[in-house]
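Dear colleague,

Thank you for sharing your sequence with our group. We've completed the structure prediction you requested, and as agreed, I am returning the results in plain text so they can be pasted directly into your records. Please verify that the sequence below matches your submission; if there's any discrepancy, let me know and we will rerun it promptly.
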Amino acid sequence: MKEVNKANIREMLRSMGNATRAELAEHINVSTTTVRSLLCEMQENKEILVIGQDDSSGGRRAERYQLNPERFYGAAFSVNDTLVRYSILNLFGEIAKEGSFSFTPDNLENKMLDVLEKELPADTLRSICIGVPGIVVKDGYRWKNNHGEFEKCVVGKVLREHFCIPVLLENDLNLITIGMGRCHQQMFPQESEEELNIAYIQFDDGCISAGFLSGGRLVRGWNNYSGELGLMPVGGELTLVQKLCSTENIMQYSEIVSTIIKWIILTLNPRYLSLGGPAFRKEAIGIVADILYAEMPSETLPEVLHVDDTWNDYKSGLTSLCVDQMFCSLSLIGEYKG
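Please find the predicted structure tokens below.
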């Protein structure tokens, strides 16, 4: 119960910014005596700071507490084909350090270990989140090499065993979609998270992938395989991505893209649908919109958008996941190490 109450205090200070002992006791529904004891212990561990005192109302002035943003850190890595970008994040999600490094498939784990050993003070790392360009599997991810064959990287297992903390891997398209949802909520805070329905389709050379938020929740599927649209068979021996890549006529290209969107509308009925990626042909946007308006009931049509640059969405999604994982790890770390 003590660890549960500590976790509740952290979450309250995270959401409120700062609070007095009485305010914390009221919000987490425990006695002020219990809160006093927990706060003393957390101060000794340098988890929280006293940032001032409230004005006196005749009695002793109440101290106001805040999380110590520099006590714990999380590490967020985004893996591309040959480049990794990383950010070291404090408890507030602020970037303490950032950088990048190149890698080859056989030295990714060692490169990440070097960064974490050099960039972080001892005993401060509490979460590692990695965005990967492939299918997340147990202990790592599967990616397609230059020969079109799938290989497995076990970077998650290596880092977890070295630091004895949970390591979370997430597909890059899912992170972009999470980031789009966060940005949307910041722009429209009046909209309920439970009503947030977003689909993002990315067109790369030789690949069509997607990420989905349904009811504010990421759709991962049973084995993290949701969104691999390009592998769908479309008749004969062709996959969807092969058919799209072999189509030069812009009208035929737009009809295929429209068909993809119609599948998604009829399956998930998103409110917002974004198209992007280096292989997407921007000139198709208007034609796609015309086809959808002509062939689909207006009540089902999402707002169709084009996204030129998704890096900020990717970074936002990865950062939020890393910070959330940090707070989860603070509650689980004792059990995990044990």
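Summary note from our side: Residues 85 and 237 are 38 Å apart (CA to CA).

Kind regards,
the structure core
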